[in-house]
Amino acid sequence: IEYHLALGDTDPAQIHFTVWFESGTIPEVGYRDLEREVHELTRSWPEQLVAELSAVVAPEDAARLVSDWASRFPEYYATSVVVNVAAADIRRLDALAAGDRESTVGIQNEDPVEGQERLTRIALYRKYGKLPLSQLVSALENLGLTVVEEMPTRMEWPAGYFIHDFGVLGPDGVPLDLEAIGPLVEEALEAVWVDGGETDDLDRLIVVAGLRRDQVEILRAYRTYWRRVAPVFTVGYVNDTLVQYPEIAADLVRYFEQRFDPDREDADPGSAAAAISGRLDDVPSIEQDRILRTLLRLIEATLRTNWFVPDRTCLALKLRSEAVPDAPRPHPMAEIFVLSPEVEGIHLRGGMVARGGIRWSTRREDYRTEVLDLMKAQVTKNAVIVPTGAKGGFVLRTQPAGPEELRAEVERCYRIFIGGLLDVTDSLAGGSVVRPERVRAHDGDDPYLVVAADKGTAAFSDVANAIALGRGFWLGDAFASGGSSGYDHKVLGITARGAWTSLERHFLEVGLDPASDTFTVVGIGDMS
Question: Which H/E stretch holds residue 121?
Fold first, then answer.
């Protein structure tokens, strides 16, 4: 109620408080507790920061950090941000300034403050200004987090430094258990916010199932492939099913890793599959059972993958086509699905020795249907050349602005696609089959893979051959037909000329001259 300030001759000052009680007894207050509380209240913000930082770095480093950064924050920051969060912000900003990265992500839980809801703080620290909120909030919501507030902070200097600070709660309405999933959430947001990675609400598995971001990518790839084969359920429903059964989702990932991780020679994939089947018996919904069981069968149908190959540019899954659920007929012998942030594609092979072109498709959702139809025709066309046919196609996942950029992007995506095919294909050396490094195969030797020009890729034969030569693939510049060292059958009209020569032979046998005699042609949709 009353206070009296007494200033000494030197620096010290004394403040005497008088507290009046209208009724009741004076509460018992421990002297040490009171002294500690008063001590906290009378420390300046920089002093509080030094004390907080000294718990994690040396005292001299704590003093340096506060000296360098405390004065750079706007005035409102000191009164709005809990001191442990502010200390973490300073450490992140100092590391960002000392490094080459343009941005970084930090996560911490607030210390409890009386009268305030305790939140998990997730911050994006940037050197070059802010980003659109819609871009940032969607990644948080895809993790299943509730965004309670955002506190933007523009640093006084250096110019451009900016903090997007979000207060969030987990799916259960409380702060996140950072000891269990903090690094997983931070890694996922780094990949999306900083590196521009893909995100959708399947990322909820990071929080509810404790999966790493790359493990979620495995399930996302199988979900995407299944939709290209048979779009039975919506993406959202598949995602909701996996999130509703996080234990099964985690078991599916473990089953994939046990089947294909070359470092897990002692793993027993059969036990993991049996465990999943046992859990599926407890799923009451027929539709959800079908979704989860299909994902299990897709992993079982997978023969090879480049998932464990270092420095890969995409994910490649080689599958036994007849084992793929809901796959339309005819079933190829095998197919390779390729997926990356830039490109998505499929290569279908009718047999062990098969030939066919690779096309750039513009049918984003049903390109597999397009390629399957073309493969059927290719099987027939190739009957007199090689045992059977093949066909491949890829689509761009982003659309460049101009024609020059589009041409460059098509070639870049073609390179990624071809690289993915070769990642899971055997080679030959000295007459012996050479397995790709760090690829565990659940099929026999399979070194025959050739490609050809097709729609949108007529000029890429040299590109494909250069990739094969650079990798030491046994076919070398015979990997792709055409190019500078082969025939361009489109320019030479080899197919049309060959058809006319066949017609002339037929007419000779029946005693007619197609150049002068009148004749009638009946066309059918099959060349067999």
Answer: strand 120-126
Crossing angle between the packed helical segments 286-301 and 246-260, to the nearest 10 degrees:
10
pLDDT < 70 regions, the chain: 266-269, 483, 485-490, 524-528
Alpha-carbon distance values, 472 to 426, 429, 467 (Å) = 11, 9, 9
Which pair of structure tokens corresponds to residue 224?
Answer: 């995407």
Angle among Cα 455, 466, 385 to the nearest 5 degrees reads 55
Q: Supply the pTM of this predicted model.
A: 0.85
Q: Are 437 and 378 a contacting pair, CB within 8 Å?
A: no
| Amino acid in position 208 | V
d(Cα 295, Cα 312) in Å, to the nearest integer? 24
Query: Helices (DSSP H) in 81-212: which residue ranges?
Result: 83-98, 133-142, 178-189, 204-208
Question: Tokens 């059958």 — which residue?
Answer: 489
Res 528: pLDDT: 46
Distances (CA, A) of 250 to 212, 302, 366, 498, 507: 10, 18, 29, 55, 66
pLDDT value at residue 65: 95
Give the bridge partners for 152, in sequence order.
164
Pair 69, 100: CB distance under 8 Å: no
pLDDT for residue 39: 86
Choice among 127, 381, 391, 490 that is catalytic: 391
Q: Is 381 exposed, middle or buried (0-12, 13-18, 19+ CB in 10 A)?
A: middle
Sort 288 into a burial class: Cβ within 10 Å, 0-12 / 13-18 / 19+.
Answer: buried
* Cα end-to-end span (Å), the chain: 103
CB 514 within 8 A of CB 503: yes
Cα-Cα-Cα-Cα dihedral sign, residues 502, 508, 512, 517: positive
Residue 391 bears catalytic tag: yes
The residue assigned the tokens 């510049």 is: 477
